[in-house]
Amino acid sequence: MAIFRRSYRELEDTHILAIQKEVPESVAIYSAGRHDLIFKQNGSVIQFRYCESDEDVRTYYTTEYDAILFDEITEFTKYQYTELVTRCRSTKAWWPGRRIRCGGMPLGVGHAWVKEHWVDSALPFEIQQGTAETGGMTRQFIPARATDNPTL
Fold first, then answer.
1. Among 19, 42, 75, 80, which one is least packed by beta carbons within 10 Å?
2. CA dihedral sign, ordered 28, 37, 99, 87
3. Structure confidence at residue 92 (pLDDT)
4. Which residues contact 79 (CB under 8 A, 6 or more apart)?
5. Which residues of the chain have pLDDT under 50?
6. What are the Cα distances from residue 151, in Å, to 15, 103, 146?
């Protein structure tokens, strides 16, 4: 599984430092050199990855992820997203299929394509079947407001 942000600094500020505090070393070890969280019991790995430019996509061409999480999807270009989701595939017979999740807020370089892809294409909470060109996966827009989070 991979968690993507646009820059390594964003990954560190929003995910890496927090997960090191929240997950005890008896459960998983963070490898700073590889930017991976490795779980001791079963060897599962969460890879922390970034893609600052469209050229960075090429560094992931031979990579295979069981699941991909995009944090702040509106910070990614459509090209980056479209290319990176092709890395979500698994050869594990027991794996239930591709899992891609995105979270984000309005604005950012990808605002227009994200709005077109998820928000304008269906009603909120409506599950929609993607086209063959987009991988055929189902998608759903789940709207949220700052007031939905009581800690804000």
1. 42
2. negative
3. 79
4. 54, 57
5. none
6. 18, 18, 9
